[in-house]
Amino acid sequence: MTEPWYLRPVASIDEAAEQAARDRQGQLTKPPGSLGRLEEVAVRLAAWQGAPKPALDRVWISVFAGDHGVAAEGVSAFPQAVTTEMIRNFSRGGAAVSVLAREAGANLEVVDLGAVEDPGSLPGVRPARIAPGTGNLRREPAMTAEELAAALAAGAEAARRAEAEGAQLFIGGEMGIANTTAATAVACGLTGDSPEALAGPGTGLDARGVDHKAAVVRDALGLHAPDPANPAEALRRVGGFEIAGLAGAFVAAAQRGIPVLVDGFIATTAALAAVRLNPGVADWLAFGHRSAEPGHAAVLAELGAAPLLDLDMRLGEGSGAAAAVPLLRQAVTLHNRMATFEEAGIPS
Ligand SMILES: O=C(O)c1ccc[n+]([C@@H]2O[C@H](COP(=O)([O-])O)[C@@H](O)[C@H]2O)c1
Ligand SMILES: Cc1cc2nc[nH]c2cc1C
C-alpha cells in the first residue's frame, strides 16, 4: 500500500531568517523582550516566510461545514438546520467571520462537506458534499474510510488553493451543529481525558445538557474505543467531516509551508489530530485565542500551545483566529518599521 499523503514531511523552517529577525528585535529601540509575545510572533513569521522582515498581506480563511448524526441525541442548544442556514449567511457576508475577514482583508471561502439540507450553488461556497451529515457516533462510526479520505483531501485542496493565491497565513474555521460533541469525543480519544472533564455547553447547553452530552460521548468512547496511537481511526469513528477537513488542511498547509492560525475548541482538536497524524505539523501552528468552551484549555495544554487572545469567545467559524490577525499585523509592522538604536542614535 502506498503511504498516505498526510505522512509526507512538512516544509522546513528557515533558521537563518529566524536568527536575523531575533537579532533585529534586539536592535530595536526598546528594552529587549519588552514587546513580549509580539516579538515572538514577528520572529516566528520570519522563520516561516524565510524573510528577516516578514509580511502579512494575504490571509486565507477556509470555513469547513458539515452536519453530525449525533445531533439526533439532543446534544446542541440549536437545531441542525442552522448549519445550512449559516452556510447561506456566510455566502451573504453576514456571519461574524465574514465581517472579520472583510475587516482583515482576508480571503474567505466556505467548503460544504455535507450539511443535511443541500444549500445549493451559492457564491463563496465550494460544494464538496460527502454525505448529508455523518453517522451518529453514539451508535455507529461517524464515517466510512472513503468518507474520511474525502474529508482529509478536501482540506488538502483548500491548502492548495491558499498556496496558489500566495497566502501567508491559513485560518481554518468550522460550522456544524453538534460538532462540539464530536470534537469532545476526538479530544478524549487523543488525550485520554474523560468526557466529564472535556464536555461543555457548546452553543449554550445548561448543566443538565452538558451532563447528557458527556454521557453521549462516554457511550461513543465505549463503543469505538479510539486509540491515541491511531488518530485517523479516531477521526473516522468519532470525528466529523469538518473536523477531518480541518486536520487535512492543517497537515497540507504545513507541507506547503503556510503557517496556520488555529481557532477554538473544534479547530484545536483538529490541530491535535493533525499533529498526531504528522508530528512535524506542530512547527507550523500558532493559536489565535482561548475559547470559553472548557475543553479547549485541555487540548491547548496537550499541544503546549499559548493562544494570543482570551476574550471569552466561543463561536467557531475561525472567528477567534480572525480576531487575532490585526495583532499579528501589528507585530509585523513594529518589527519592520521601528528604528534601531543605531538609526536613532540612542546609546544601548
Ligand atoms: O470554537 C469554539 O470554541 C466553539 C465553541 C462552542 C461552539 N462553537 C460552534 O458552535 C457549533 C457547535 O456547537 P454545538 O453546541 O452545536 O455542539 C459549531 O458550529 C461551532 O462552530 C465553537
Ligand atoms: C447561529 C450560530 C452561528 C454559528 N457559527 C458557528 N457556530 C454557530 C452556531 C450557531 C447556532
Automatic annotation (TrEMBL):
Coiled-coil region list: none
GO biological process: cobalamin biosynthetic process
Keyword Glycosyltransferase: yes
Molecular-function GO terms, alphabetical: nicotinate-nucleotide-dimethylbenzimidazole phosphoribosyltransferase activity
Domain of life: Bacteria
Annotated function: Catalyzes the synthesis of alpha-ribazole-5'-phosphate from nicotinate mononucleotide (NAMN) and 5,6-dimethylbenzimidazole (DMB).
Protein name per the record: Nicotinate-nucleotide--dimethylbenzimidazole phosphoribosyltransferase
